[in-house]
Every structure is written in structure tokens, then in C-alpha cells.
Design goal:
Helices cover 30% and strands 23% of the residues. It is α+β, with helices and mostly antiparallel strands and 543 residues long. The chain has three domains: 207 residues, FAD/NAD(P)-binding domain; 170 residues, D-Amino Acid Oxidase, Chain A, domain 2, CATH 3.30.9; 117 residues, Glutaredoxin (3-Layer(aba) Sandwich), CATH 3.40.30. The strands form five sheets. Strands 1, 2, 7, 8, 9, 10, 18 and 19 form an eight-stranded mixed beta sheet that branches. The protein has a seven-stranded mixed beta sheet with strand order 5-4-13-14-15-12-16. A four-stranded mixed beta sheet has the order 22-21-23-24, with no helix packed on it. A hairpin with a 2-residue loop joins strand 18 and strand 19. Helix 8 packs antiparallel against helix 9, helix 9 packs antiparallel against helix 11 and helix 10 crosses helix 11. The termini are far apart. 45% of the residues are buried.
């Protein structure tokens, strides 16, 4: 190990340049907080990895000033609407789920936000976030730099690409260094929950899937043929498909020849493909015991690891950053007590546990679909799969009965694939940044979302007309201030704002004339009443 040549000082130090760390960097720059971010990779995530960017994350990116038209344009499969279970890519579905199939829920989704879920490969998202993060003068983004550990004085030791080691001294450190989090291990923070539920082989391929499949609007194909048993995740139907294969034996048995054989059978002999990435992925369901140790905070996968069933992992990390950064900025300004930072764990950990539990149950729920086909999940490949699939696919009365049973099981998983209550309906309870009334605010069920301007809830979206530069009530929430909605004059607000400025919006004013009725109804705001909204868009108090 080389000798440390110098120690640099910064207000805030971010370890990890994935979506969580980069979101934190952008938000810090919005608030004028200088910081250093180190990422051991020299570029974005090599594997496509996550692909679901949910509604709340898109709202956060909008508030963070990202060019939303460009972000939405990163979606290379905007027509995706189906999830299917079939023998292979060419076979007719045995079961089929339509993400747009429930008109009532679809209408509710359209009304809950101006933003929507997008299917964006993680590397594309990371590149867009990295470009935005690097555009700020106060952000020192260092790719290819690796965090090596804590020194005896509590400062961090990092290694530059040329091997030079440097000390970093910061008022606060954000550890967004991924599922294996060296920082969490160094701090001795344990995670509760199963470390390994299953292991998967990720085979990411450049392939034109439209030359193979009959149905072009599928996001996920569950292929049930035992020789190609796995899930195809379509990131781009003409260019990128990820084949996730559950490991039914030792990793060594999945050598290059075996993988090539599976892909040849999956895509067929006449369709060229290129294997872009091969790696093993471990499915966990864990939440850290602590989110804070002194001046170090855990965010994203460093704090929680979920099964991918539900697409909540990346999005939870984005929300972690959104919840914490404004609080740190207030603390750095010197007017907020340290207990404000404790509210990060108080608020976010229960949400992470709920997301973890839902993701785990979603994974279990998929087994019910296999059972409906006639398969026994406990037996893996050791059962007459071909015969069972033939029976389920047969164009006869028995086959129709099996498919009806399968589609009933599929429909029972709607809250897996369409969970607005998890995306935008999570409620924060307790802590000094919310009024005591937040404890009484009811949680939304996973499959439903009732917009309510109650303490702990995200402010309801209301369409605003005739107001330049804003289209929603969420657009008027600034990340560097509290926002106070009133209907006429309001009494003094006693809820603390931790030294941050408060912007007052009187809905009885002339500027709100065209929107007052809708806003007053949605926010349940009457003359003389008020609603105080935090920088992260959650209601702090009302009176």
C-alpha cells in the first residue's frame, strides 16, 4: 500500500455512483452543497440490471431538474404491456397479464401524477444521471476511484486510478456502494432477512427479438421449457434482451458451451445474437439494522436488498436520497438539530421493510402460477415438465381449463405488476420532521392509491392550468424550501422548518383563480386552513 499523499476536505462525501449516489449528487448540487463522489467503476453498470423506473422516481427526477423528455426517450420499449408464461418465445401463452388491462386502475394511475413508469435500462439511466451530476461546479465526480476503508481518525481512504491513495474528510458520508456495501461491513451494520433466496445467471444479449416472437408488446417472457427455463426481460425488442436463468446446479456447470446451447435454443438457429454480459446475481431480501452510524448514512442497496419482483429496489434508493439530502443541507446550514438526520432512518426504514416484504411475497406468488399449470416449484426440473406444458397448451377442453386456471392465478398477481400504493402511496410516520398526526395517516394498500394531503403522505397531484412553467401541484414544490398552502390568511404555523425558507401559496390569490376549486377539493383545504409541505413533497403538517 502506498503512502497517503494528502487529505482533501469536503462538506459531503458520496461513495457509489449508481442511480442512488448520482441522484444524491444532483440534489446536493441543487442545494449548493459541494461534495465529492467516488465510483470504482469507470463507466455505467455493465449489465442492464434494473429496468423499471417508477412514477415516484420520475417525479423526483423532474424536481431535480432533469430533462424529462430526454429521460422518457431512454425507454426503448414504450409499447410494453404484457407479461407472459409459455413454453418458449414462439409458443402461444399459457398465461398472460395485461399491464393496461384494468381500465379503472389505469385511469387512477393517469390521475395520480403527470409522470408514469418507464422501462429504462440501468446503464442508460446512469449515463443520464452522471451527465447531469457532472454539470454542476460544486460536484467533484471521480470515476475509477475506489473506497478502501476508514482510517483511525474516521476519515475515508480512497484510491485513484493510478494507485495513489488520498484521504477524504467530510462532515457527512453517504454510502451508496451497492448490495455488498464495503462501508456497511466496515461499520459492522448487519442486515436482517435471508441473504440468499436463489441465484440467477444473467445472460444479456444483443438480439432482434421481433424476428422470433409473434407478440411484440411483451415486457417479460417466462419460458418454461426445462432446457431454457428462465425469464426474458425485454429492454429493447430490437437490440437488448436479458435472459435470467435460475441456477439448478453448481455455477461451474453453466460453462460457456452450456450457455451458448441455451441461447441457441432460446432464440432459434436462424436469429443471430451476441452475448454482451454473463454474470451471477444473488437474490436477497434484507434490510439493514441501522441506516446511520455517526456521520455515515446507508442508502440504496447498501441499506436494503429486495427480490426484483415488483421493481422496487432502484426506486427505493432514489427515494432514500430524496428524503435525506435536504435534511443534511439544513443541518449543514447550522440551523437544524441533529435529530433531523435521525428522521431519515425513522421514515425510510419502515418503507424499505414494507418494500422488501412485498417483493418477497411477489416472488412467492409467482409459484402459484406454476402450480396452476401443474408444476411443483419444489421439484425444480425433476418432473415431467414437457408433458405438463403440452397439456396446458393443448387446443382442447382440458387445455382451456388449465389456461383459465393459470390466468386466474396470473390476475391474482396484479398487485405485483401494478402497485401504485408502493410507488407513490408510501407514508412516513413519526420523527421530528412530521407532525404527530402522521401516526394516524393510513397506509395505502399495494394495489391502490388514495391521494390525501395528510401528514406523512406525498402531496396529491392536481393539474394546474394557466400557470407558466408548472403543470402540477408537485411542480410548485421547491427542493430548497418548505411550501405553505393556504386559503386566505392562516394562523402561525408551529411545525418546525429547520431554518429553511418557506414559500407561501395562497390558493385564493388571483394567480390560482383558474385552479382554486380543484386544488381546494384535492387538498381538502378550506378558508383559514393551511398545509405545510416539505422539500421532498411530503406533507409535514396541516391545520
Amino acid at each position: 500500500m502506498q503512502t497517503v499523499v494528502n487529505t482533501e476536505t469536503t462538506q459531503l462525501f458520496i461513495i457509489g455512483g449508481g442511480p442512488t449516489g448520482l441522484t444524491a449528487s444532483i440534489l446536493l448540487s441543487q442545494l449548493g452543497v459541494p461534495h465529492i463522489l467516488v465510483e470504482r467503476r469507470t463507466g455505467p453498470q455493465p449489465a442492464p440490471a434494473a429496468h423499471v423506473v417508477n412514477t415516484r422516481s420520475m417525479e423526483i427526477f423532474r424536481q431535480a431538474g432533469l430533462p424529462m423528455d430526454e429521460i422518457y426517450a431512454l425507454n426503448s420499449h414504450p409499447q410494453a404491456r404484457y407479461v407472459t408464461w409459455s413454453t418458449d418465445l414462439k409458443s402461444a401463452p399459457i398465461g398472460k397479464f395485461d399491464l393496461l388491462g384494468d381500465e379503472g386502475r389505469l385511469l387512477a394511475r393517469m390521475n395520480m401524477s403527470q409522470d408514469r413508469v418507464a422501462n429504462i435500462s440501468q446503464p442508460k439511466l446512469e449515463m443520464a444521471l452522471a451527465e447531469k451530476a457532472a454539470s454542476f461546479d460544486g460536484a467533484d465526480i471521480r470515476m475509477g476511484w475506489e473506497w478502501k476503508g476508514f482510517r483511525k481518525d474516521g476519515t475515508s481512504l480512497v484510491q485513484a486510478p493510478d494507485g495513489t491513495e488520498v484521504g477524504i474528510e467530510a462532515a457527512y458520508t453517504l454510502a451508496a456502494d451497492g448490495a455488498g456495501s464495503p462501508v456497511a461491513r466496515a461499520l459492522g451494520v448487519k442486515k436482517n432477512g435471508p441473504e440468499t433466496i436463489a441465484q440467477f445467471l444473467n445472460l444479456s444479449c444483443k438480439v432482434d427479438l421481433t424476428k422470433i416472437v409473434g407478440e411484440r408488446e411483451v415486457l417479460l417472457y417466462w419460458c418454461l421449457d426445462p432446457e431454457i427455463f428462465g425469464t426474458c426481460i425485454v429492454h429493447d425488442p430490437k437490440n437488448l434482451t436479458v435472459f435470467m436463468v435460475p441456477l439448478f446446479g453448481p455455477l461451474e456447470s453453466y460453462d460457456d458451451a452450456r450457455c451458448a446451447g441455451m441461447l441457441d435454443k432460446l432464440f432459434g438457429p436462424d436469429v443471430p445474437y451476441e452475448l454482451l454480459y454473463k454474470g451471477v446475481w444473488n437474490m436477497s431480501a434484507q434490510v439493514a439494522e441501522r441506516y446511520r452510524v455517526g456521520n455515515v448514512f446507508l442508502l440504496g442497496d447498501a441499506a436494503h436488498r429486495f427480490p426484483p419482483t415488483g421493481g422496487l429496489g432502484l426506486n427505493s434508493g432514489v427515494c432514500d436520497a430524496h428524503n435525506l439530502v435536504w435534511k443534511i443541507a439544513a443541518r449543514l446550514q447550522g440551523s437544524a438539530a441533529d435529530e433531523l438526520l435521525d428522521s431519515y432512518e425513522i421514515e425510510r426504514k419502515p418503507v424499505a421493510q414494507r418494500n422488501c416484504d412485498k417483493s418477497y411475497s411477489n416472488n412467492d406468488g409467482l409459484q402459484n402460477i406454476l402450480t396452476a399449470i401443474g408444476l411443483d416449484p419444489a421439484k425444480g426440473l425433476n418432473q415431467p415438465i414437457h408433458e405438463l406444458l403440452e397439456a396446458a397448451s393443448a387446443p382442447d377442453e382440458k387445455g382451456e381449463a388449465i389456461r383459465a386456471r393459470v390466468n386466474e392465478a396470473v390476475e391474482n398477481e396484479r398487485d405485483h405488476f401494478d402497485a401504485p400504493g408502493m410507488e407513490v402511496g408510501f407514508i412516513y410516520h413519526g420523527g421530528c420532521a412530521l407532525s404527530a398526526a402522521s401516526g394516524a395517516t393510513p397506509d395505502n394498500d399495494a394495489g391502490s392509491f388514495e391521494p390525501r394531503a395528510l401528514p406523512g403522505a406525498r402531496l396529491p397531484h392536481v393539474v394546474l392550468e394557466g400557470m407558466p412553467g408548472v403543470a402540477s401541484t408537485l411542480d410548485v414544490i421547491a427542493y430548497d424550501a418548505y411550501t405553505l398552502f393556504t386559503d386566505g390568511s392562516a394562523p402561525a404555523v408551529t411545525q418546525p422548518t429547520f431554518g429553511m425558507p418557506t414559500k407561501v401559496l395562497d390558493i385564493s390569490s388571483e394567480s390560482f383563480a383558474a385552479n382554486k376549486a380543484r386544488v381546494a377539493e384535492a387538498l381538502e383545504l378550506k378558508a383559514g386552513q393551511w398545509i405545510l409541505v416539505r422539500p421532498d413533497g411530503h406533507v409535514a403538517a396541516r391545520g
